[in-house]
């Protein structure tokens, strides 16, 4: 039996599948709506399809849905989910409440192979890529469990989205479809550790999403000490790729900067950062590192974060300090999954 994950098909792919079966095009649209707007978990729920079609779908396709293994609610309203996949693996999804609406932070891989030294997600390496349907179901699960609308998505959970390029592109197509949950590209941010060839490939798609680059350091020596990916794609490649992305798409990139005490948080480092990205109009998000087990790093204190921000502002670079949500529920990337693995529940 060939069980095709039908939830991972874009509208176009689903139309192609329906055509192969000899079904009229409107059947593909019905199925897409059942899967992505109405949250069907079984083909039998698709009551406006002929019984023979339902039987055929049941034989050949599978609906990928995630199970909620754990759910933690923070005092600030942030909810963190440990979600189970059909093969027994687990991932994390976080829902954050902002004034402008609910944002879901999705994982794109089980684990990660990028090796950033401050990050819990990468500690066990990469197990596998998530499918487009699994990533979409992270969003649907958070919406269903809270009973609230999700208006924004950030691809900042476990995994490197550009290391799972094709599935992530299909996910973006599915999630932004007006026939599904219709979350506009303007409300989606994709974060990358800096895979230069993939940034170039993404630029060619002209998607209108916000590209966020995890910079974390303005010199190669400092960045390579924190992020091995910098050895493959050093700053003299990464920054021009960001500038080219802006030229190509007309969209400004933003930079993530996790602040580590005594490593990347001095005023001199702020000045180097300003010099590196000056003239891009780029926004810098400063966030004190969230210390994880097995990492030598500790967080910059609030006063030094503000001093760093002030230095950037004085030098003409726009920077904000990211509000830390969910710190009481270990909401930093990959922490819950690591805890669950150690406790033997995942
Ligand atoms: N792989 C992508 C997206 C996932 S990580 C990327 O690297 O951008 C999302 C963001 O959280 C990145 O900026 C990452 O560097 C940062 N991050 C990971 N672990 C962190 C920690 N313990 N404290 C603070 N930021 C962290």
Topology, please?
Layout: E1 4-5, H1 11-21, H2 25-36, H3 51-60, E2 61-62, E3 67-73, E4 79-84, E5 90-98, E6 101-105, E7 109-111, E8 126-129, H4 132-146, E9 152-155, H5 165-175, E10 188-192, H6 196-205, E11 210-214, H7 220-226, H8 229-232, H9 235-249, E12 254-259, H10 267-277, E13 283-288, H11 302-314, E14 318-321, H12 335-342
Parallel strand pairs: 1-2, 6-9, 9-10, 10-11, 11-12, 12-13, 13-14
Antiparallel strand pairs: 3-4, 4-5, 5-6, 7-8
Helix pairs in contact: 1-2, 4-5, 6-9, 10-11
S-adenosyl-L-homocysteine binds at residues 116, 118-119, 156, 160, 191-193, 214, 256, 258, 287, 289-290, 292, 332-333.
Describe the model:
With 346 residues, the protein is an alpha/beta fold. The chain has helices spanning 11-21, 25-36, 51-60, 132-146, 165-175, 196-205, 220-226, 229-232, 235-249, 267-277, 302-314, 335-342; strands at 4-5, 61-62, 67-73, 79-84, 90-98, 101-105, 109-111, 126-129, 152-155, 188-192, 210-214, 254-259, 283-288, 318-321. It folds into 2 domains: 4-62, DNA polymerase, domain 1 (Orthogonal Bundle), CATH 1.10.150.530; 67-342, Aldolase class I (TIM Barrel). The chain is built from 12 helices and 14 strands. The strands form 3 sheets. It has a 10-stranded mixed sheet with strand order 3-4-5-6-9-10-11-12-13-14, with helices on one face. Strands 1-2 form a two-stranded parallel sheet. β10 (188-192), α6 and β11 form a beta-alpha-beta unit. The longest helix has 15 residues, at 132-146. It is globular, with a radius of gyration of 21 Å. Bound molecules: S-adenosyl-L-homocysteine (SAH). S-adenosyl-L-homocysteine (SAH) is lined by residues 116, 118-119, 156, 160, 191-193, 214, 256, 258, 287, 289-290, 292, 332-333.
């Amino acid at each position: 039996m060939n069980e095709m994950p039908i939830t991972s098909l874009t509208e176009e792919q689903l139309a192609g599948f329906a055509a192969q079966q000899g079904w009229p095009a409107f059947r593909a649209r019905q199925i897409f709506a059942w899967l992505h707007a109405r949250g069907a978990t079984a083909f039998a729920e698709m009551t406006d399809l002929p019984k023979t079609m339902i039987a055929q779908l049941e034989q050949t396709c599978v609906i990928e849905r995630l199970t909620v293994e754990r759910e933690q609610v923070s005092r600030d309203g942030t909810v963190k989910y440990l979600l189970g996949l059909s093969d027994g693996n687990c991932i994390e999804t976080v829902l954050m409440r902002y004034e402008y609406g609910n944002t879901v932070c999705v994982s794109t891989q089980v684990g990660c192979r990028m090796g950033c030294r401050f990050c819990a997600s990468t500690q066990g390496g990469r197990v596998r890529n998530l499918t487009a349907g699994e990533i979409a179901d992270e969003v649907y699960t958070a919406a269903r469990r809270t009973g609230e609308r999700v208006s924004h998505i950030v691809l900042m959970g476990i995994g490197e989205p550009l290391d799972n390029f094709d599935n992530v592109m299909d996910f973006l197509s599915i999630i932004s479809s007006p026939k599904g949950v219709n979350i506009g590209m303007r409300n989606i941010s994709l974060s990358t550790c800096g895979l230069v060839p993939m940034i170039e490939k993404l630029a060619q798609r002209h998607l209108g999403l916000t590209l966020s680059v995890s910079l974390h350091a303005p010199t190669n020596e400092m960045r390579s000490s924190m992020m091995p990916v910098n050895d493959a794609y050093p700053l003299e490649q990464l920054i021009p790729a960001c500038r080219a992305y802006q030229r190509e798409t007309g969209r400004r990139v933003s930079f993530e900067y996790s602040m580590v005490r005594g490593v990347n948080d001095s005023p001199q480092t702020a000045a180097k950062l300003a010099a590196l990205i000056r003239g891009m109009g780029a926004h810098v998000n400063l966030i004190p590192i969230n210390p994880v087990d097995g990492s030598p790093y500790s967080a910059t204190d609030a006063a030094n974060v503000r001093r760093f921000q002030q230095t950037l502002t004085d030098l003409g670079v726009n920077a904000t300090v990211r509000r830390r949500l969910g710190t009481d529920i270990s909401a930093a990337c990959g922490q819950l999954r690591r805890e669950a693995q150690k406790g033997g529940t995942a």
